[in-house]
Write a structure and sequence with these properties.
- By secondary structure, the chain is an alpha+beta fold.
- It has two domains: about 170 residues, Beta-Lactamase; about 55 residues, Arc Repressor Mutant, subunit A, CATH 1.10.10.10.
- Helix content is about 55%, strand content about 15%.
- It has a five-stranded antiparallel beta sheet with strand order 2-1-5-4-3, with helices on both faces.
- The longest helix has 26 residues.
- It is globular and about 55 Å long.
- About 40% of the residues are buried.
- Pfam families: Autoind_bind, GerE.
- This is LuxR family transcriptional regulator.
- Keywords: DNA-binding, Transcription, Transcription regulation.
Amino acid sequence: MESFDPLLAEQAFEAVATLRTATDRVALDRIIEPVLTPLGLPYFGVGRFFGPTGEVAATLLNGNLPDDWVHHYARSGYAMHSPLAREMLTTNLPYRWQSVVQNGGAQNCLARRILNEAGHFGLRDGLYIPMREADMSYTAVVLSGPSPELADPFLATAAEVVGAHYGLAARRLNSALQQVDRRLTPRQRECLLWARAGKSSTVIGEILGISPATVNEHLGLACRTLEVATRVQAVVEAMRLGLLDS
C-alpha cells in the first residue's frame, strides 16, 4: 500500500466524524472496521487494564477481539503479567507490540511468548493506545491482526487516529451506560452465570430444564439489553456492571 492514500485519509476522517455521534457500542465497531481492516487490523477492542494504583482490572468493554484469545489471555494470567500491557503504565503514547519485544529486558521472553501465542489467534502484531481515565485507571484501545500495516508512518498514524477516537467514543457511551439502571431478568442472569462458567447452550438448557433455543433467546435478549454482540461480551459487561454478583 502506498505511503499516502487519499481515499484512506478521507475514510479515516469520515469515521472520526461518525464516531462522535454514534449512539451504541455495536455501531462503533461497524464504523471503524472498514477503515482498520485494509490496514491489516481487523481485530480491535477497548479494555480497562489497570485500576488507579496499577492493580489489574482487566475488562473488555467492547470490540471484536477473538473470544478464544480473550479466554486464553485470562486463563494464562496475562492480564497480571503481560509486559505488552504493562507498558501503558509508563507511557501515554500509542505503541506497537513488537516494539515492547524488541526493547528487551527481563520481561522480553514473556512478551515474545505472548506475542507468539497471540499469533495463533490471528493477532501477529498490533497497537496499544493508552487512555488514562478521570479516576486514574488505565484503559487502552487494542488494534491487531494477522498482517498489520504499521511500518509505514502514514498508515500507522491513520490507525492511531481512528483508534484513539474509537476509544473516546467508547468512553462517552460507557459513561452514559453507567447512569442507566440496567436490569436483566432472573432467567437471563441464570443463563449468563452458566455461560460465564463455560457451559454451552445445550448444557445450560439441561441444567435449567429449558431448550437450547430458549437459552439462546435469553442470551440474545441479554446481549440486546447490554448492547453487545456476543455472549462473551454480555458476560463481561454484566460482570462490569455488577449484575452477576452473588
